[in-house]
Write a structure and sequence with these properties.
about 325 residues, alpha/beta, globular, binds flavin mononucleotide
Length: about 325
């Protein structure tokens, strides 16, 4: 997960017996190195590093201008001059040789890919470095591409999932498969071990995923409220309040579809209906708008990623959460 997980959170999860994860899709090679070293300083157990592998979105100056024009009144409402240009604030792994070299050198035990797949050469280099490889799929065709690329296991990300939807092409038609149908489909047809993701908040959800043929489950939203996460107080309050019952898939915040707690920004996205300038250009504007809003005490423009299970989030240290989850798994399995 990019943004919320810290080295402290990932290490606490790994130390508690699960596989902790950090996302480095929103940082550069030196930031990624610092995060990985931060995890290694806190645990000797395996952990996962997640990379964004999107096909870079083409720049479209007309779309960008229209987007900035529509956001301008919001910037002004926070007494800030509107942005006049958008930047590509994050690079995809496919165009970032420095990031690839850093990753191969640091060789995290597990590496996962989101939004697509790296080149065959990059995959071979990760494998030679000894990394176990995972990649997200949101449908069978993506899972088949994951299998053909020689990846070790597929993450079946359902429509319920919080954060960015891992679809390879954000403009392609989306069947919006839920975690249950997708997990079963990929368990039977992908030829790969399946890790179920989306809406799983506790041991009961994990058991259900295992019953569907998954070998493991990936939980994101369940960890946002953990003490070691970097979620700010407004995000934690939103997760603990009535808005947790209302998540929406929106491209307004970052330029790619992502599930977020309903807030002023997602509402703006629903009303605007403008074509997005794409990822991560829209995110540049979104981050600037959030900073301007936060400076006035308005927290409704944050990237408050969360899945449909958000109301079930539990605020506690990660080690306690893992031990509760594993007790739930065991209690559930002893009933069978
Ligand atoms: C705050 C947050 C950040 C996320 N960041 C990433 C990320 O950087 N890379 C990634 O592959 N998935 C990311 N995800 C998605 C998760 O990998 C996973 O698919 C999702 O959390 C599963 O659904 P759940 O949130 O309902 O548990 C993120 C999810 C959340 C909630």
């Amino acid at each position: 997960m990019a943004g919320v997980p810290t080295p402290e959170l990932a290490a606490a999860v790994s130390n508690a017996g699960a596989l902790g994860s950090i996302g480095v899709g929103a940082t550069n090679p030196s930031g990624a190195r610092a995060m990985i070293e931060g995890v290694r300083a806190r645990t000797e157990r395996p952990f996962n590093v997640n990379l964004f592998v999107h096909a870079p979105a083409p720049r479209d100056s007309a779309r960008e201008a229209a987007w900035l024009g529509a956001l301008a009144p919001l910037f002004r409402s926070f007494d800030v001059e509107p942005l006049t240009a958008l930047r590509t604030i994050y690079k995809s792994l496919v165009e970032d040789d420095d990031m690839l070299a850093t990753m191969i050198k640091l060789a995290p035990p597990v590496v996962s890919f989101h939004f697509g797949l790296p080149s065959a050469d990059a995959i071979a280099a990760f494998k030679s470095a000894g990394c176990v490889l995972l990649a997200t799929a949101t449908n069978l065709a993506e899972a088949q591409a994951v299998k053909e690329a020689g990846i070790d296991a597929v993450v079946a990300q359902g429509w319920e999932a919080g954060g960015h939807r891992g679809m390879f092409d954000p403009d392609a038609p989306d069947d919006q498969l839920g975690t249950m149908a997708l997990t079963r489909l990929l368990a039977l047809r992908s030829g790969l071990p399946v890790i179920a993701a989306g809406g799983i908040m506790d041991g009961h959800g994990i058991r259900a995923a295992l019953d569907l043929g998954a070998v493991a489950a990936q939980l994101g939203t369940a960890f946002i409220a953990c003490l070691e996460s970097s979620a700010d107080q407004a995000y934690r309050d939103a997760l603990a309040g009535p808005n947790a019952h209302h998540t929406v898939m929106t491209h307004a915040v970052s330029g790619r579809p992502a599930r977020c707690l309903r807030n002023r920004f997602t509402e703006w996205g629903e009303q605007t209906r403008l074509p997005s300038p794409g990822y991560p250009m829209a995110y540049d504007a979104g981050k600037a708008l959030n900073a301007a809003a936060k400076a006035t005490g308005e927290s409704g423009f944050g990237a408050q990623w969360a899945g449909q299970g958000a109301p079930l989030a539990r605020a506690m240290p990660a080690a306690e959460l893992i031990s509760l989850i594993s007790a739930e798994c065991e209690a559930h399995s002893s009933r069978h």
